[in-house]
Amino acid sequence: MQGLKTWIQGLRETAYSIEDVIDEYLLHLGNPSQRHRFIGFLCKVGRWIKKLKRHHEIASKIRDIQKKVVKLKKTSSTYGFSSSVQPGSGGSSTSTPWHDPRVTSLFIDDAEIVGIESQKIELTSRLVEVTPERTSFKMEELLRNMSMKFYQARKEPVPEGINTMDQSSLMTLTRQYLQDKRYVVVFDDVWKLDFWGFIKYVLPENKKGSRIIITTRNDEVASSCKESSFDYIHKLQPLPPKSSWKLFCKKAFQGGCPPELEKLSHDIVRRCGGLRLAIVAIGGLLSRKEKLVSEWKKFSDTLGSELQSNSHLESINTILSLSYHDLPYQLKSCFLYFAIFPEDCTIKCRPLTRLWIAEGFVKAKRGVTLEEVAEEFLTELIQRSLVLVSEVFADGKIRSCHVHDLMREIILTKAEELSFCCVMTGEESSFDGRFRRLSLHYSSNNVVNITGKKSHIRSIFLYNSQTFFLGILASKFNLLEVLHLDDSGLDSIPENLGNLLHLRYLSLRNTKVRMLPRSIGKLQNLQTLDLKYTLVEDLPVEINRLKKLRNILVQNYDFDVDLGLFSFKGVHVKEGIGCLEELQKLSCVEANHGVGVIKELGKLGQLRKLSVSKLTRENGEHLLHIISSPSLSRLKLFGLLEKLPDWISKLQNLSTVLLYGSNLMNDPMQVLQTLPSLQELDLFRASVIEQLCFEATGFQKLKILRIVWLIGLKRVKIEHGALPQLETLRVGPCPQLEELPLASATLPDLQLLNSMICRKN
Question: Where is region (Disordered) located (predicted)?
């Protein structure tokens, strides 16, 4: 109903206006720092005059908002809208009945089905194999009215009064009916985690070899149903490329694919990502189009709008949208955030979750950090099959992810419909001021010229987009909360950056910026400062004022061509950094600017990831005595460290250790092997003793071990029982190495072995 959409859009814009007025008040009418004597008095008078004007402006805006609210309330009565309308209720007696497009899949002829032969055989064998215990399956959909189905399946009369029975009576009726029968029941597309906990008491375990099939798109739902070794979870995989192409050609062409359409057709099939429904629907639609390159290219270029407007593709849009609509409120914004990133982009998860936190999508929970809550959100999106894993870390945490191409089209449509984000690619230049976020992809357009005066914009993202003026932008959009300017060609930061008092996230990765203005100390809400791979070598002391900082990321590297290794460079921070009590990640701080900075690292009690460079024998001794955060999970130390800090052995959560350029006088394995959570260990370009020994009881969870260019190392010994979970091992080149461990005999889980012996000539 178009009236409802218009009303909701008006409500959303009014909510944005309310938020803007509140933030403008905080920005302009807060209490500035006081100055002394006559100059201070003049400044105070000047501020009072400006404030008086601001008071009138804000009061005027509030009156306008009040009028809009009254109008919205009146309009809602006119349209007959009610806040009590439930999702799926239709909202109106004249609404068109909804038909589930998934039902038609039950009537597809076997000859039309491609690429599921092996999975069909496996599932059929599990259904008919002789196992007396009742077993259950998991895969995809929703609970139906079970009791009546059983009677109807055997053509038996349904008991009278079944429609009026309460829950307890229905459970008893069904159990009694099935008690002496062997049965097969399918629950399709189950969404609720507590489903199996209830339904299992309805289905009797009578040792007659009954089977239960539960399909779901949510991994967590599947796992909640598995209670014994007899229960089996089958993960339905996308169609492989060959089967996808075969199915597409079967639907789109009577014979083979014309040569001139092959490239376009392969691109369309690739974007379907092995999704059977999409291949069938799109192939069927294209079968009715003329076999002209121009026609097919037009379709390919406008696939997103076709999904929304073409009735032949409505089933794809409807089914994919179901997963979005089932999301809890707090996850919908996180999911829509994938609209920000360019097509075919692999998204790094840590910056993603930091952005969610900066946007306010993640709320604090007792005993859990914001970062951990954000990781839970991402995990749930993955379990719901909405987000796909690209790469994982050694500790099992997700390193990078992506979304299905067709799901991205759904996201883009929803993001535009909800004024969530405006994505502009190439030379597009029309920007609707109602959007909260602007993401430019491969554009040379100037952000300042694109956006209008009445813009609600709070977040700006540039991807391979070069031209803009940060000084003008900071003046024009002083309510900005997120600035993501990676790879933008930026070479300096203006002083008026400090005017962005609401800024929570600033990323300048891979830019040519050399220094930060002192005004950065005004950004009291800043949570993340990302200066990776910039030319910044020194952070102003004003950084220490930013009490809400959670992440300082400032590192770069030089590449050693001879060794094939990276040498990391850090940044100079000032004494006082120990007051940043909310800091979670500090990478990478230089240790050669006084012992005071090193000592203050011990005050950072919430620190989870720490990198320290330019360690020497002298400052390394001070590092030995600081009290490190018990929450530390990643530790990287660069420089001539002679002894590992004693406190390392107390870090129960430490999962990654990297030592680069050390000059260790003792066997580091004695300290490291007892760490209960250590999963990745890297020893690079260091001097060590002649033999490293991995004892039988050591490194029980280590998955990745790299020993590269260790001076003085002659032997690596791995005792039987050590490193039981090791998957990746690299040893060498090491100049004096004489003997390699027999990895294949002692490491049963080893997947990748890269060993080299490099001796002196």
Answer: 79-98
